Each structure stands twice: as C-alpha cells, then as structure tokens.
Amino acid sequence: MKAAENLVGLDLDGGWHVDELWKRPPQSTGGYSSISYLVSNKEGEKAFLKALDFSTALQDEDPARRLYYLTSAYEFERNLLCQCRDKRLQHVVVPLADGTAKVPGNFGDLGNVPYLIFAMATGDIRAEVERWEVFDLAWALRSLHHCAVGLQELHSLGIAHQDVKPSNVLVFPVEGSKLTDLGSASQVGNPSQSDKKNVPGDVSYATPEQWYGWSQSSDFTNRYLIDLYRLGSLIFFFFAGCSATDAIQLKLSIKHGGNFTRSDFISDLPYMQYAFNETLHDLCTLIETPAKDLTDEIIMIAQELCEPDPRRRGDPAARAAAYRKQYDVQAYISRFDRLAKQAEIRMR
Fold this sequence. Notes:
- By secondary structure, this protein is of the alpha+beta class.
- Helices cover 43% and strands 14% of the residues.
- The protein folds into two domains: 3-119, 2-Layer Sandwich (Phosphorylase Kinase, domain 1), CATH 3.30.200; 123-347, Orthogonal Bundle (Transferase(Phosphotransferase), domain 1), CATH 1.10.510.
- It is built from ten helices and eleven strands.
- Strands 1-2-3-4-6-5 form a six-stranded antiparallel sheet. A three-stranded antiparallel sheet has the order 7-9-10. A two-stranded antiparallel ribbon has the order 8-11.
- The longest helix has 27 residues, at 265-291.
- The chain starts with 10 loop residues before the first strand and ends with a helix.
C-alpha cells in the first residue's frame, strides 16, 4: 500500500483526525496525483482532505523529473491557495489547513505526505442541476454571479484560473457557489508549469484561439480573457447542458465536416463567428421558457463573454474606456446580481 493511501486513523495538526478514504465520484475530473479522505475535528466539523501521492512518480520513465513536476505543481497551488485564504476570498475555495502527515511504516521519504484540508461542499453545480425537477433560474443566475465574483477576486491577486468548468464550481449550503482547483492557474510574476501550456485547463473547454495556439499579445491579458470565455460557457452549461466550445464545434462539424482544417485562426475566424451566432440562436430558444423577459440580456452576456475573437471579448464599455481593462468582470457581477434578484422576486 502507498503511504498516501495509509492515512486513515492518523491525528493531524490542528486537531484533525483522518476518518476514512473518500472515493472520487465517477464524473470527477482534473487534479494531479492525489488521494482523498474525509476528516473531522473535536468540534465535530467534517472536512475533505487532499493528499499528494508522490509514489506515482516511481512508475514514470523519468522518476526524478516526474517527482519534481508533482512537488512543483503542489507547491504552486498551495501557495496560491494560501494567498487566497490570507486575503479572505469569498467565492474561491480555500484550505482550512495544510501540512505534512507522517505515515508510520517502511515508506522512507515517501512517508511524508503533504495534504490540504477543505470545507465540505454539497457537490459541484452538475450534481446540483441533476437534482432539479424544475429548472431553477434564480439559483443558476446566482451561481453565475458568485463565479463572476470569484474570478474578480482571483484577478485582483494577479491569478488567472484558466480551468473554470462545471466540475470546478462547488456548492456550499450558506456561501453558495465557489471556484475550486487552481491546479491549472497562472499568476503574474510567479512562473508555473501552466505558463508553458497552450491549454492549461481541460481542452474540451478551450477557447477558439487556443485551438490554434493564437494570442493577440504575449502579456497576461490573454489568460484573463480565457477566464471570461469559460465564465460565459457556464451559461451554456446551465441552459443547454453543454459547453460553448462543444456548441461551436458541433455547428462547425455540421456545416463543414472534415473540410474545416483549422489552418489559420484569423482566416477561420469568420466561420467560427458564424457558427457561434447559430449557437446563440439555439441557446435563446432554450432560455426563453424559463427566463422569459430576461432572455435578451442573458444572451447578450453570453455573446460578450464567449466571443470567438478575443480582441472583441468582454464588456464593450470596458473595451472602450481607457481607464478600464478589457477583462474587467465588474459589469458581469452587477448584471448577474440584478438578473438573479429579478428571478428571485418572481419566486416569491
């Protein structure tokens, strides 16, 4: 048995006790090599522990290089999470505690297992939506509002998430929706392995420019604009059950089949924008029934956030103002908040 699989029964710093292994749900995605546990403290608080499994490096063709990769990824994410915790971010999942468990036995250096402890969520937004018998418009809009707040909080620390997707939005009983998993994040002035990747996060949610490895400049703005696209893609998730990327690619495959070669981003952009407009038409049809008179503004937000051309992505007022950044999320925080309140009033 691996050291990281042998934490049950251990007492950890801060009064935490490791109760049992936690089996990752079949639909869970992402994350470097880790093993999960349920833990509790003397006050009866239940929490979730993520233990890094260094032993996977031993099966690699280059164990030393793989070990360096795992430890570097863990240290980078832990550093970002601690920054978020110290700044008391409200809509980003931050650790309750972190440390190193010393596992008894003949594990050598691998017996020192780094871990992070997080508050227990009720699930991610996919699990929440699956429980609905009737579509909950107010809840969906409030979740989008919380995600926008989470992105603004991260951006204020110079952090681009780069992997916003339904499985990375967790739900909490009181606080609502929070962004989780900074394993694909990048930070201004803090080099990471994600910086070297064309698509740091899940490729199935990649932006159109990432399909081509194209960027309008070499500065960090491109990473923030990816976050905007992925925020808009959550609208597609709630109302269409797919990502913006899936919707665009489906339209392209229907229209062009194997003839769409993706040879050059700028040359292919008109075709992608035409496909995107078709997806917005389909999305509008799906939104109209639950959203009624709120439909037009939701579609407008989706259009601005998921614009295939990153040079035109985001709030038009922010792009036109010299004192605001193109990736400014504040307008969407306000708009999602207002839309959620309007939907909540209808339910009374």
